[in-house]
Design brief:
The protein has helices at residues 15-23, 50-59, 88-96, 122-152, 157-174, 187-195, 220-232, 241-247, 252-261, 268-280, 304-311, 313-317, 327-332, 336-341; strands at residues 4-8, 41-46, 63-65, 68-73, 100-106, 204-209, 235-239, 282-288, 292-299, 319-325, 346-348, 359-364. The protein has 366 residues and is an alpha/beta fold.
Length: 366
């Protein structure tokens, strides 16, 4: 499955530089002026997971295939986007199509890079984007909720659900709060809320783009962003787009030496992915054999047939059982044969809930 993250922010905060570095492509033209990214560029990257290498080594797998993550570099936003200013309509439409928002904030001083407001203030920058998303949602719900409330009084069951959950979201928006703080009370409300595709309902990861010297511990700008994230139920990470750009093209050994010199234990991509997984409640399972070792992604709470469906729809349709080995058991017992001998290979049915790190082999019949 993977997941699709939209990289957003004001012009000249480092979005395209970060995108290029993360995807190790030059698909997005990084330039020091607004709107250098006109069409959203999409980069597919493999999710780094050291567990996959260990599984492949034990199984003697010929190929290693990580799960995939999509980054979408979306054009810079300006005030008035909710009313169509600048590239507003396109910007909002692009955000509607992603699973999560990676909001890049400029947390560094540099006189050579122009800021759209001629000052460095990541909180004000975040609020500019937040306001445009909120205004777009507000306009949508102020039309939909009254109509649903009117139908609800006439006994329409679906309208009652809509009026309840979207009415709650509307009140939050009127208070200047994001719709993701809405609390649907049952499955029907969850369904209606998801179908509304509200922009402020999407999970947000703030990426504090700092100067190289602050990459390990952040600075006063990033500290304020972390406070904002904690207050609104979002997440935040510190990344130096300049460092990520320097890592591009380096071989693995040189990368590690460079990162150690900068006081870092890993590249920014790993931090962003880990935060993204937490943000979207995702987990990884594995399929392992002599041909390939492969990682797959599902949402937490997914059952065995759902995981089988990530591989092929036929597997989900004809699911019989899942032969399951916990990752730690697979490693400790040196593979499937050892796990089976020790009684650690389990036969799980349709109600089994996938656990992070499960090594699975599906039995199915179509």
């Amino acid at each position: 499955m993977g997941f699709r993250c939209g990289i957003v922010g004001l012009p000249n905060v480092g979005k395209s530089t970060l995108f290029n570095a993360l995807t190790e492509t030059q698909a997005a033209q990084a330039a020091n002026y607004p709107f250098c990214t006109i069409e959203p560029n999409v980069g597919q990257v493999g999710v780094p997971d050291p567990r996959l290498d260990k599984l492949a080594a034990i199984a003697g797998s010929a190929k290693i295939i990580p799960t995939q993550l999509s980054f979408v570099d979306i054009a810079g936003l300006v005030r008035g986007a909710s009313k169509g200013e600048g590239l507003g309509n396109q910007f909002l439409g692009n955000i509607r199509e992603v699973d999560a928002i990676i909001h890049v904030l400029r947390c560094f001083e540099n006189d050579d890079i122009q800021h759209v407001d001629n000052k460095v203030d990541p909180i004000a920058d975040a609020e500019t984007v937040d306001t445009e998303l909120l205004l777009s949602d507000l306009e949508s719900l102020e039309k939909r909720v009254p109509a649903a409330q009117k139908k609800a009084t006439q006994g329409d069951k679906e309208a009652k659900i809509t009026a309840s959950v979207l009415g709650q979201a509307l009140e939050l928006l009127r208070e200047g709060k994001p719709a993701r703080l809405t609390k649907p009370k049952d499955e029907d409300e969850h369904r209606v809320f998801a179908q509304a595709q509200l922009l402020t309902a999407k999970p947000v990861l703030y990426v504090c783009n700092v100067e190289e010297e602050a990459a390990a511990n952040g600075n006063e700008f990033s500290a304020r962003v972390f406070e904002k994230a904690a207050a609104e139920g979002a997440s935040a990470v510190i990344v130096s787009a300049a460092i990520e750009a320097e890592l591009t093209g380096m071989d693995p050994e040189d990368r590690m030496v460079f990162l150690e010199e900068m006081g870092l234990s890993e590249a920014g991509l790993a931090r962003i992915i880990r935060a993204g997984y937490q943000l979207l409640d995702l987990l990884t399972f594995f399929t392992v054999g002599p041909k390939e070792a492969r990682a797959w992604t599902v949402h937490k709470g997914a059952k065995a047939p759902d995981a089988a469906g990530e591989i092929h729809s036929d597997m989900q349709r004809g699911f019989i059982r899942a032969e399951t080995i916990a990752y730690d058991d697979f490693i400790a017992l040196n593979g499937e044969a050892g796990a089976k001998e020790a009684g650690k290979l389990r036969q799980e049915g349709k109600e089994y809930v996938i656990q992070d790190g499960d090594v699975l082999h599906f039995k199915f019949n179509v």
